[in-house]
Amino acid sequence: MGILKKSVLIMSMVMFTFVVMAQSIEEVGAKYNEGNGLYKEKDYTNAIASYESGIELANEVGFEADDLKGTMQTQLMNAYYKNGTQYKKIGLDAAIASLEKAYALSKQLGDDAMTSKSAKTTAKLRSGKGNSLLKKNKVEEAFAEYEMALEILPTCVNAYYGKGLVYKSKGDYKNMIINMDKAIELGADNPKAAKTVKKAKSTTSKTLVNAGAKEIQREHGKKAAEYINMSFNYAPGNANAYYYLALAYSKTNSWDDAITAANKAVGMETGDKGDMYFALGQAYEGKGDAAGACTAYKSVTTGPNIEAAKYQMTQVLKCN
Questions:
Q1: Residue 286 and residue 253 in contact, taking contact as beta carbons nearer than 8 Å
Q2: Is the pLDDT of residue 18 over 50?
């Protein structure tokens, strides 16, 4: 083959390559434009499909399509995020999957703003899913959702609160407190987390008082007092809490502490105080203060302890 023929052949191949490449880049651009149109219509699911298809074509074309590919990746990331926020439309699991893709792509592209935004939204949805599962008593599945929320957002207040609820349901008060404390700590300076922090404090306080009441039934006065006193770290004690605390102290013969707690219960209670006065009478009687016991028992005029109080006054203490 002559030099001229070789040159013509080479030129033809080069021209063919340019034509094919131009056509391929045009196809990439067409997918990009198609995706943008769908994005503007808020049809994010189909926009994602167009962008993903365009990026695949760009990869086949090579470096010549890199600029367009980069632009399309940014749009794809945004579409993933927007799609994920439509969880009521596409379903929670599909939304979470889309948000996690937005998160992964944002890390790849170095988009810190999107990384933060997608992490927060993903953690919020996973925590919400965990709450729904917990209401259905699917405890382990709920716990897994809270854990995944914390993997993507280690500062997620709702996830720590959810884990606290899981441990509460298991009677694991130690780990309940650890997670509730974390929720309270992380949400302390965040106005958006104020409701969750309030719930964490209230739940922990009530749970510890109830745990104390159960320990009283088991004759574990010391443990009961520990739980109830711990509850005061989360909420001011009410009449019910101090009543149980009085009973707990009486179980360990801590009469002065029992008297103090019972008096607080009496002072706080606005309704029937019969049980509180009876507990106060028992504490005074245990201490050996007959006069104090008689005064307290005389105030038991309602509730189930009326006859027991009369017996103590007439048969044991011989009150005047």
A1: yes
A2: no
Which has the closest alpha carbon to 207: 144, 153, 164? 164
CATH placement of domain 28-120: 1.25.40.10
Q: Return the pLDDT at 23.
A: 55
Give φ, ψ of 199 to 5 degrees.
-65, -40
Q: What's the pTM value of the predicted model, to 2 decimals?
A: 0.87
Whole-number Å distance between alpha carbons of 111 and 310: 76
Over residues 195-211, the pLDDT tens digits come to 999 999 999 999 999 99
Of 303, 308, 302, residue with least CA distance to 293: 308
Count the neighbouring beta carbons within 10 Å of the beta carbon of residue 41. 10
SS3 139: helix
Q: Give the domain ranges of the chain.
A: 28-120, 255-320
pLDDT the model gives residue 9: 39
